[in-house]
Amino acid sequence: MLTASTPLQITRRRPRIGVVKFASCDGCQLTLLDLEDDLLAIADRVDIVEFAEATSKRSSGPFDILFVEGSISTPEQADEIVHLRAATTTLVTIGACATAGGIQALRNWADHDAVRSLVYPHPEYVESLATATPIADHVAVDAELRGCPISPDQLREFVTAVLAGRRANLPDEAVCAECKRRGVVCVAVVDGMTCLGPVTRSGCGALCPAYGRGCYGCFGPREAANGAGLATWLERDRSPSDVARAFALFDAWSPPFRRVIDANGGPPGPIDGPARREGPDA
Amino acid sequence: MTTNAILPTETEQAFLPRERLPSLLEALRRDGRTIIGPMVREGAVVYDEIRDTSDLPIGWRSDTAPGRYRLEETGSARAFDYGLGVSTWKRFAHPPRVPLTTTDPDGMVAAVEPDVPRVAYLGVRGCELAALGIQERILRAGPAGDADHVARRDAALVVAVECAVAMSTCFCTSTETGPEVADGADIVLAELDDGFTVRAITPAGERIVGQLGCNGATRAQVGAAAHQVAAVRSWIGYPLPTDGLAERLRAVPDHPRWDEIAERCLACTNCTLVCPTCFCTSVAVSSDLDGTTGATERVWDSCFTLGFGRVAGDANFRPRVADRYRQWLTHKFSSWWDQFGSTGCVGCGRCITWCPVGIDVREELIAIAPPGAAPAPIPWPPAPPLGHAPTPLATVDPARYVAVGVSGARRETADTMTLALETDDPALLASRPGQFVMVARPAQAVPPISISRIRPAGLDLTIRDVGPATAALAQSQPGDRLSLRGPLGRPWPIDGAFGGDIAIVAGGIGLAPLRPVIDEVLRERHRFGAVRIYVGARTPRDRLFVAELTGLRGRIDLEVEEIVDRGGPEWLGRVGVVTQLFEHAAWTGEHTTAFVCGPDRMMQAAARTLASRGVAPERTWVTLERNMACGVGLCGHCQLGPYFVCRDGPVFSVAELGDTFTVEGR
Amino acid sequence: MNHRVDPEIVDLVGRMLPHLPATSRRTLAAIGHDERPSAGVYLMRQGRPTLDTGFIIEGRVAVRDHIGPDDVTLMTLEPGDVFGWSAVLDGISTASIVALDDARVLLFERAGLLSAIEGDKGIAAAVYHRLLEAVASRLDATRLLMRDVYGPGNRA
Question: Would the CB atoms of A169 and B68 count as touching at under 8 Å?
Answer without folding.
Answer: no
